[in-house]
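Quick one: co-fold with flavin mononucleotide.
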Amino acid sequence: MSTKINININGIALEVDQGKTILEAADQAGIIIPTLCYHKDLCIAGNCRVCVVELIGQKRLSAACATPCEEGMEIRTNSLHVRNSRKHIIELLLSEHRAECTSCYKNGNCELQKLASDYKIVTQDFIPLAQQKKYTIDQFSPSILKDDSKCIRCQRCVRTCAGLQGVNALSVAHKGDRMKITTFFEKAITEVVCTNCGQCINHCPTGALVERNYIEEVWDAISDPELHVVVQTAPAVRVGLGEEMGFPPGERVTGRMVEALKRLGFNSVLDTDFTADLTIIEEGTELLERLKKTLKEKDPSVKLPMATSCSPGWIKYIEHLYSDCLEHLSTCKSPQQMFGALVKTYYAESRSLKPEKIVSVSIMPCTAKKFEAARPEMHASGYTDVDYVLTTRELAIMIKQAGIDFAKLPESSFDRLMGQSSGAGVIFGATGGVMEAALRTVYELVTGREVPFEKLNITPVRGSEGIREACIKIENPQEGWEFLDGVELRCAVAHGLVHAKQLMDQIKAGTSPYHFIEIMACPGGCLGGGGQPIPTNPEIRAKRTEAIYAEDEEMPLRKSHENPEVLLLYKNFLGHPLGKKSHHLLHTSYIERNRY
Amino acid sequence: MAFDTYLLKRADFIFKDEEDWKNILTRTLKLPPNAIINELMSSELKGRGGAGFPTGLKWKLTAEAPGNEKYIICNADEGEPGTFKDREILTLVPHKVLTAMAVCAHVIGAQQGYIYLRGEYKYLVEQLNQAIDEFHTICQSLGCQFTIRIFLGSGAYICGEETALFESMEGKRGEPRNKPPYPTQVGYKNCPTVINNVETLAHAFTIFKYGAKKFYDLGVQYSRGSKLFSVSGDTPKPGIYELELGMSLEDFVNEFGDGDTKAVQVGGASGFLVPRKKFKATAIGYKGKLSGISLPTGGSMMLFNSSRSMYNVLDNYLEFFREESCGQCTPCRVGCQQLYQGIKAVKRGEKPAGYLDKLLKLTETMKLTAKCGLGQSVANSFSSIVENFREEMIY
Ligand SMILES: Cc1cc2nc3c(=O)[nH]c(=O)nc-3n(C[C@H](O)[C@H](O)[C@H](O)COP(=O)(O)O)c2cc1C
Ligand code: SF4
Ligand code: SF4
Ligand code: SF4
Ligand code: SF4
Ligand code: FES
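Sure, here it is.
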């Protein structure tokens, strides 16, 4: 029931829905208005002012991103006033900015740089201010680098951390010329409540927030003939990497990616999806175990709902903010860390390699996984289980550095032994994917029948709403599972930590109706992760999501418990799910962290 | 420029003690909201705290705005350096302000009012609370449930800006919001809100007591009534004076100057500097028929005699803005730093005199694009000082 109103932009008459901003209306008319502080994922700030436009009859210019259209409005987006002002504003931003693009990590993918280029800011008359200020560079974190000299104070990171994640690690301090983006008491990021999710990086227009990169370390390892360098790739990377290589969002580049990794010189190119399948076996068994203890043995010490544990951003969040709920977490490590623990044990044994000569690298859509790999718990193999974690973006840089013409690459397959996976492993990359994969397996283990959804697609847990619910009734279970007969398995899925908070508050209040919840720190799940290509927005994430589900449907195997390599792993090495070896290698524990 | 000069006329309404405020309150609360709005509109009272928005219209818009929860907030942040007239009002005649707030609440349908008191005025809290307690008792006896609470500000100048003030009251950082929406629709806690300066409310009381005509008869067209002026600088008689609007600056200087007045800064740091040669042609009031000198916050009038360096004056203002800008928007945050450093660079000869023109253009951009009144008004003092005293900037 949207009312239409009539406006005019640059002489073009236009009918728009009431409530639309000038920026949205201009977009509809095919007119581009430059922006910096605006981001589709975030609330409106209206602080950079590069989007100003002229409204006929008004003395002052208006911020297009923040001004709603009104009936009869006459808008000019390229008048003399607008052009002069816009140029001034860009010049001002640059004067306060350490614009040393050639030595900047964001060189080539920076919104400020693009504006400076589009508007040809070739002279800089204003006094350089950046050089006079004492800026801090926070480089203590294994995940995030924060360089205030590159910050344009658009507050996108602040709004991201508050609005998408509800963490509030970043805030604005001081006023006037001293105004800056900082943390609680201006401590290092490593000391405050920050999940390392990297969403602030994904939403930062400049080089002020970037991932800590390990590109040179990985090149060094690859170049060392003594070392055997193994790489694993997370499911979300194959639906994001294409964007960095010039493809439109939603392009699946699995085969090309594998070929590129081989050409980069990795000794073995394997798949994190393999341990995603393994996670499902371990976690599914753990869930059934907890259900049995609660429903059959009435053991009050067992905690339900059980929460998934494969998103390290989410893990750090709960460790900081809901540390009295840690027993709800599945003890399963993330697929990355399961993989790491197996590489230097199972893989090393099978391939007769010395674990100390193996370097294990992972390509992740995630910056929190860098922190996770550095956790002291993650040395189950007796070595650092995962040596280097690279984001999708860092992999793209390596491919470009190696002179690989990605579009022309042939497709290649993962190497064997920990390279095989099912569609269930693939959808780990989307919000709801772990839940769907787990249900496919758990339901079948209990009833002997496939989940009652067309083509195994459990659509209620798919989608982009912050929290989604599903309820599956178990009937006629197989022998041993009689206690589940008639039980409605209640599940919920949340992505973005603001939504996780809602589920956690229910648990804390004792009102959570669920048996099993899946939580992913990032919007959209891993495919919207903090290490994925920039830009990100709801449309791009929707494309990546489509791609991931398409990849799943095309897989010959759709269920984790049918992955032959996983079955082999249990047969030859692990024994059985939740067994002694599993416990040692694949499960972990959590710690309480500071709340401030 | 040819126009009539108006004589400087003193008025004495604001600080006149009105023992009968209880009767005025009782009487006015019995009137229908529309009648009160009409009375305010016909008085042509305009806001004394900033933009000079017609007070009657503000109340009307808020009364008509949809919403069950509404607020009336008295802006007592008084952050403009050198002004302290709101403090005087709250010290000497607080009941006038409280009465006007209760009437406003009656008009717009508010249950709760706040006085946003400048942090430095903390010492006033106790006596103000006494006045509020007494006022609450009277209100209750009239069957009026309206209550008033004091909210103590944090000391940032920008928190006097109405939307930054709301943010600050909501426990957030004091940063101005985007407008529209305006407070009359979306104000404190996103509810329709009337926010008025202390002095505006005191004038409203005068109108309730004496009627709109008495107020309207003071001043001149478009600038009705009287106004408090904080007179400071090179003057033998600094202090607070209530004067009718519309006087010529020449008249003012004759009354308050020390015989050697070189320029007057009208409206504080965010106002304009008027040089001697323009005294005669300048009238003090709101925009309209007068020669465009508006009265930003405070009604501050600072006189400078020939011993003063206009460069230093501007330098002071720019330092103030550079520090007091909330820092969120580019034109103001960076613009103020550039202006502050820019005039220094010209003075030191590091930039050519022509750089002043680049800075003048920059202030034009700031006026056009800054998010709030602070950044928009830096141009006022900058351009009026640089244009009138260019040599002092260079040599
Ligand atoms: C930077 C800035 C500071 C302000 N400070 C004050 C102040 O201290 N007191 C005040 O009454 N209004 C101040 N204002 C004006 C208010 O935003 C608002 O217009 C005023 O309170 C409305 O009341 P009035 O209509 O009664 O004038 C300020 C405006 C700006 C832009
Ligand atoms: S942040 Fe952007 S503009 Fe700044 S130095 Fe880096 S690439 Fe250049
Ligand atoms: S990494 Fe995530 S939690 Fe940490 S500051 Fe950035 S957005 Fe906030
Ligand atoms: S760190 Fe990046 S996102 Fe945050 S304010 Fe600075 S430029 Fe904007
Ligand atoms: S104009 Fe200045 S004070 Fe106003 S919002 Fe912008 S930075 Fe803040
Ligand atoms: S994009 Fe509109 S003000 Fe920044």
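If it helps, The pocket of FE2/S2 (inorganic) cluster (ligand 6) is lined by residues A 35-38, 46-51, 63, 65-66 (CB under 6 Å).
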